[in-house]
Amino acid sequence: MPNELLSESLALAIKKLEARENSMRQFEELSNLGSWEIDLKTNATLWSKQTYKIYAEELSVEPDLVLFFSHVLPEDLQSAQIALQNAIKNGSVTSFQCRIQRCNGEVAHVIINGQVIYDDDKNPLKIIGTTQDITQLKIIQEHSDELAQLIEYSSNEIYIVNLETFQYLYANKGACAALGYSFDEFLSMNIYDINPYLLKEKVSKLKKELLSNGHVLNRSEHKRKDGSLYHVQSYIHKLKYNGVNAYVIFDTDISKSIEAERQLQRQSLQLYHQAHHDTLTDLPNRTLFKDRLAQAIISAKRNTKAFALLFIDLDQFKKINDSLGHHVGDEVLVEASKRFKNNLREEDTLARLGGDEFTIILKEIKTLQDIATICQKIILAIKEPMEVDGHTLYISSSIGISLYPQDALSSHDLIKYADTAMYKAKDEGRDNFQFYSSNMTALAFERVVMESSLRMAIKEQQFVVYYQPQYNISQNAIIGMEALIRWKHPSLGLVAPSKFIPIAEESGLIVEIDQIVMKLAMKQFALWYSQGLNPGVLSLNLAMKQLSEKYFIEMLLETMHGIGFKPEWLELEVTEGQVMNNPDASIEKLKKISEIGVELAIDDFGTGYSSLAYLKKMPLNKLKIDRSFVKDLPDDEEDAAITKAIIALGKSLNLKLIAEGVETQGQRDFLAQHGCDTIQGYFYAIPMPAEEILLLL
Hints:
Helix content: 40-55%
Radius of gyration: 40 Å
Number of domains: 5
Strand content: 25-35%
Number of strands: 26
Number of helices: 28
Largest sheet: 8 strands, mixed, barrel
Oligomer: single chain
CATH class of the largest domain: Alpha Beta
Strand order of the largest sheet: 18-19-21-22-23-24-25-26
CATH architecture of the largest domain: Alpha-Beta Barrel
Shape: elongated
């Protein structure tokens, strides 16, 4: 926005505020009502001119709570302090009456109302309120017998109510005029007739307080005969009336006061919002961002969590401002902020520090891949063409990232390091993101590129299946094969599973990859069987994400039926760790798979924390002894003992046994000696492509 327009807007806003302040000042003088506010963070206190007048203080005196309480008479001091504390604690409108001594020595009666204002995060920000001089009203109440005529014709509403039945015993002309009812009509009514929102529980509480203290204050809404509503402030005092236990109510119409309080509250909230938000994008500004960052550090430290700070700069933004004007630049900033926000979670904080600089606090980040994914989404979102004022604009962004607690523990250092990383991103050619640690940047980029390449590999069917034979020792014959995935990358060649399977599992791509392996391997086995060969049982690794798919069993049956693959040719391997993540649901699904004739094996047995109780419930056919226990056989005593225990457990549960990773004669002989007669490993054969397996068969 040009400076001239900004100046005009500010001048107009100032005039409106001055006019509003004049109206408020006149209202306070007419109603003998003073306003005030207390900053609950700094205890700074502001009094209106009428408030100074009520306390007879000089305008030059700087007010605070100590000054206020110094005016309260000692007999009322404790109740006044408690009332103020309750207001701060509960945040609700509070009213209390006390006596004060003015600077000129006069004693006055006042009613004080207050309400707490909260910030965006529901933290108490300030308390605003009013002080009303009711000295004259008290004088009237204390001399009611002599001033009966004055009460009758008072503009205030005055009622006398039966303490037990709550029926009206008296209503003055001011009450009749205010409500629109005649005196006789009032005598047939009770307090609920003109107080539609007054609850019986509240009345019971007020009555108890009235009997205890002799008087009570209350606010309520009156309903006139024509149905309209207005707010009243009630001073209620216990008395005897014609020999009946009763109480007198002095009601004052405070509708204007209520509206003034609401207006003051709206203004306070508006001013707070303006002080903490960017006027162009309405995002948190630098002040609020620093507060949110400090809170994020406190929360992360308390919960032992990590978070990331992103520092974003729009590339070449200055050229847009210089060539097309600031109004176009402003529209670009607004659109950019929307695109940032659309790619974030509710709990993340997006802020504009100024110019084209933005920051994002990503809370409770678990992996670098999560950060990299969000950064990639932001970069792609900003690169989409922007249609602004008839121009099609193409811009990009550079993102710097610092991590808590890895990179720094303070707000200052996190901001500095993220800013440094952002300039590093610009040095790398813009339109990218960089971590403060170069190692982290390389790792994150590698994972992003790998995931992108995996998606392309799935689309272009770049995967091939290798098969590792499984042998029966006593028969020295192939009894089955494990299908193992290989990625035939167009430029990198054959990529080992250890390089891409973890990323596939994290991104959810493992489900599609497992389905590809399943179809390729089943087709190959069905072909071998049709050629009169006997490859045995096909062993497939099954990821829990695939097992958890709602229609997995239907998909499995459909695939076998379409290929002509028999269920008895298939064995599915699951790891014990995966099953134990959700044992009941997993066992239920595995039982359904077993019922269709497919065998089940526990892979990597002994490396997890399985429960024997659950193991007994599972419809297993085979235990697979992990290579970590096999590799040091027969020399390592602990591995030997564990392996023998697994073999004994398997036999006691009538399960088949197979050991993987067998590479030496000594390992083979140990396993054969102790009852494991099926092995898999380099001792017999390495994983091979289908054409080499064909020769072996």
